[in-house]
Amino acid sequence: MTLRVWFRSRSSHASELQVDANFAITTLAQIRPPEIEKNLPVILFPAIDLKDGQCVRLKLGEMSEATVFNDDPAAQARSFQDKGFEYLHVVDLNGAFEGRPVNAGAVDAILAALTIPVQLGGGIRDLATIETWLDKGIARVILGTIAVRDPALVKDACRAFPGRIAVGIDAKGGQVAVEGWAETSRLTANELAGRFEDAGVSAIIYTDIERDGILKGLNLPATAELARATSIPVIASGGLASIDDVKDLIRPEYAMLEGAITGRALYDGRIDPTEALALLKRG
Ligand code: AMZ
Description:
TIM Barrel; binds aminoimidazole 4-carboxamide ribonucleotide; alpha/beta
């Protein structure tokens, strides 16, 4: 049995899907009808970055520059959900540096405390770890280093877990950084994204490292440039500083973006969640 359906993509693209008898979903073709670009919801993802079991924010990805905002990640996650956020972004920072999950206990506690979906990155480097997290209830995993080192693994994961694999592309000086951003590859963001065209990656989270954690404002022009170069929905990350960034997200030229990550500005109280979420709902 083959069932073909159309779905509204959060990106600037719609995709024709084929759902086979095993309910595996394969993208058959991608088109860009401009009329569906309007009025799609923009997701604001509150971020929980975990270091040594605590919720922290770093500056420019430096572990030595950590500010602890909460020592109870599950309570922090619950508070974001209670404020109306609909999707949580979690990073296991120790995991990203060590190449394996380190803050699994804190992630388990977050999952137990929430009903909203959670995306998780940091130290997820093989299929077994991907499967473990998805079985535990992570909505989608974010693959960073492995997307540079072993793109075939990302493609295998997309086939095995349709709709549940995102790629994290973190760029510094135009080059993609890996291993907790301690190393820089020779790839540009566009080159890396190009490797996954038609692979079934559900989203790219694009971080401008040179803005991350220092409230410099989102780099929306560069994020939009990446979004125009790929059919994969793109999420903006790094530097979101104020409600003005949120307002920019609903400008027509950025309508193709799936959403944005907010970290320090939220913890600092520079953004009022109710105001931000109301703006995005109207947009
Ligand atoms: O802040 C950092 N130094 C950092 C960070 N936030 N290093 C990696 N990461 C995040 C990426 C992505 O979500 O933005 O970790 C994830 C990638 O981890 P890995 O282990 O797949 O490279």
